Amino acid sequence: MFALTNQNIFYLYRYSTDMRKSFDSLCGLITNEMERNPASGEVFIFINKPRNRIKLLHWERGGYLLYYKRLETGTFDLPEFDFKTKDFCIAWHQLVMLIEGISFKNLKTKKRMDLSTVHEQLHVSKMQV
Fold it and tell me: What is the pLDDT of residues 15-38, one digit of tens each?
């Protein structure tokens, strides 16, 4: 089934990508440049230099899926990340914002409950009793 959700892990390749690249060439970038396994189930995101085309490569049972979007007007607004790294892990909501054309600049994230924090607090309070 073709589906990307918040359960997937998304990696944005930090360099511009020639959109003539397809499955094998993108797998080569993932393996050699990003030092990751293209068949890991993670989703790899590639954007061209003018930032008007995006490809997502994803391994699902039985083979690779390649999602491709070309903007007729406008560009994709990229999040800021450390240029010393070879890739950048982004969250599902960031991917959706990127594809929908929502700017990353001046965004404020509201505080949300994190279950891992709640479990840690419960563990600490049990130890204090």
Answer: 999 999 999 999 999 999 999 999
